[in-house]
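for the writeup, i need someone to sanity check this before i put it in the appendix. the sequnce is what the collaborator sent (i think, or maybe the updated version? ugh). structure was predicted straight from it, no edits. if anything looks off just tell me and ill rerun, i have time this weekend
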Amino acid sequence: MALKFFSLRHLVRIPINSVNNQTPLYQNNITHNLTNFSTSSIACVTFFNKLPAEKLWKSVTSVSNAGAKKGRGKGAGRIRIRDLNRGQVIGVGKINMLWPGLSAPVIRGRELLKQHRLPDDPERMEKLIKLRDSMTKFRRFKLSPIERGWSGAKMPGRSIGPPDPVGDEEFIGFDTKVLQLRSLLIMKGTLGRTRNYQAMVVTGNGNGLAGFGFGRAKEALAALRKAKNRAGKKLMHFDIYNGHTIFHDFFTAFGKTKIFVQKKNEGYGLRCHRAIKEICQAIGIKDMWAKVEGSGQLQHVVKAFFIGLLQQRTHQQLAEEKKLHLVEYKAENAYYPTVVASPSVVRTKEEIPRDETLDFVQYVMNDKVMLRRKKFPRFYQTMPHYDIYLKKFERYRNHEKIRHNLKTEYGTVKSFLNDKYPEAKSEQEA
């Protein structure tokens, strides 16, 4: 701010030569020596008007990088900036005046308003102090257990509503879940260290439509809004088998991340990575099992799972690829074979190569084998009395149901000691 005096001709309505002669300005005995006045500009710059209010409050409420490394200012985030303009009314100060053109209209009807003093408000300062104190009090925002994310009140895992409408189209029935929200520090030569926020979300209607998106902005809310709207513009449709699970097991990978997904019966639930669980809920998949191997980077997990969902095929497509019947065995149907899909042209036994993969699980898994832990026997299975227990129940092997289960699982009726002492095969079986 700079102040500048007006020229002397605007202040004194007398010739300038009278000033040089130091003649009295008025008829009384008071004389003024105007030769000491200067017409140069005066810069009134102080610490308080040089920096904006945001910088001043930051110097009080924040801590330096060196202090933060030493553990200082851990509660500085709870101190909020006071907005001293809040509660103030233009034209109304300590003296309650009515100023036409500022706090009141100049003309009201046909009446020309004049400035006049209004009755004083003795509680004005008390109200301002109470209002300013309420701004600095830290109130922790409480969430219900249903609205919480993966880790307390943080954003990952929380719902942020459907995407914004695009033109006349609205996203009815959609819900968006935050998968990741992280801050990025970027060092620039001109601006120094700048902070950005990156968000990754997934949105879906629970009926086969879903999509994911990324957003980056200076503020966290802006990044979430960008990611949500981008996810709404990149929707993908996925078929759901019987309305609750996937069509078949599959293997998918992205980068160093590998995911093995298995189809499960109704009522099994979702037993998988938490990000995969949110994606399944957005799509409408209710029963599934998944295992993540390799890198657990969240973005790679999400991309790999979406790639696997897009690559899965229906039963009819699998039958047409192999040109064979697709048969399903279920325990609730007593393992009775049920033809699920049949191709238009079926290959004969002579047309099938000897090295072709005919096992359904290995075919849909692309011949990938899941890493499983070695199963060690129970502590009681190594004791002598366990063999006595098995010998007592050996007679039940001849029951029809037991024989049927053994033939289904092993292909033939086997002894309980077959794993320890394999039975010799005859020449006809070999």
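Confidence is low (pLDDT under 50) at residues 1-20, 22-28. The radius of gyration is 40 Å.
thx in advance!!
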